[in-house]
Amino acid sequence: MTDEASAEQSLAAGSIPCPSCSAGSLRPWGHARSRVLRGLRGVRLLLRPRRARCRACGATHVLLPGEASPRRADTVQVLLTALLAHHGGSGAGSIATDLGVPVDTVRSWLRTVTGRAEWLRQEATRWVCLLDPEHPPIRPTGSRLGDALSALGYAAAATRRRLNVAATPWQLIGWVTAGRLLAPLTPTRSG
């Protein structure tokens, strides 16, 4: 689902499976707090995420649109623009200035994604193989970040072709990564 209307329809129909138990389906259950996301060129997006609850296990989930990442103030488009600029040779300082984002934030993104680039490449390649089994092998670019970005682009294109969805590449990449573009690979433990 790439738009709010189809997500609402699917929620009301109970056709979204619960990611916690897989046995139940999600139903509408209010909204999470509103927040503003930074987009490119100073664009601000108001986001009021839908909250859903599983009828079987009672777990609640916040449903985010494809262009939003959990616990992030920037859109997936901003994050990927930074990654593409870094892959093209730009440093964190110039990327931060171009995007209007704090330089420490950009450094954090770059450190996180370069540390998990192989995982991103594998996940995106898996999507390509599932959605387009006849797709030729994805050629290496010479860097782990480049390989991950290339595979994410192919996965977005394969998703659009196979599922015939009208979504931006950023939304599709958000979907392919399940919002985990910058999430830790393993849960952190508190205590």
Describe this structure in words.
Helices cover 45% and strands 12% of the residues. The strands form 2 sheets. Strands 1-4-5 form a 3-stranded antiparallel β-sheet, covered by helices on one side. A two-stranded antiparallel sheet has the order 2-3. Helix 5 packs parallel to helix 6 (144-163) and helix 6 (144-163) crosses helix 7 (169-176). The protein has helices spanning 4-13, 76-87, 92-99, 103-115, 117-131, 144-163, 169-176, and strands at residues 26-31, 35-38, 44-47, 50-54, 60-63. The protein starts with a helix and ends in a 15-residue tail after the last helix. By secondary structure, the chain is of the alpha+beta class. The longest helix has 20 residues, at 144-163.
Quick tags:
single chain; 191 residues; alpha+beta; 3-stranded antiparallel beta sheet; two-stranded antiparallel ribbon; 45% helix; globular
